[in-house]
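Standup notes
- DV: blocked on the single-chain target, sequence here:
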Amino acid sequence: QVLLVESGGGTVQPGGSLRLSCLAPETIFSRSTMEWHRQAPGKQREWVAQITTGGSSHYADSVKGRFTISRDNAKNAVYLQMNSLKPEDTAVYYCYAVPWWGQGTQVTVSA
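- DV (later): unblocked, structure below
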């Protein structure tokens, strides 16, 4: 059962931007720290960013200053604005709210 639904992935050139969205049921969203993780081919899944119910955000060093996580409590949605994208950002991006995972959305950064 997929409760978290991501969207917004795609292919973009280096230096470009994408915004990922994740919709969650209110019963999960309202009580959860919302997280983004990613998994590149041949690599382990890694944490990217998170935002608490109170709006405090934290980022992995690899994306700090380029990615911004936000949440819209009225829409039960969390977003990941990704700017200055690099080829090494290529991965499947997953939304996570303990213990639920989304199905993932592919982000490809390529010239």
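- Follow-up: The chain has a mean pLDDT of 97.
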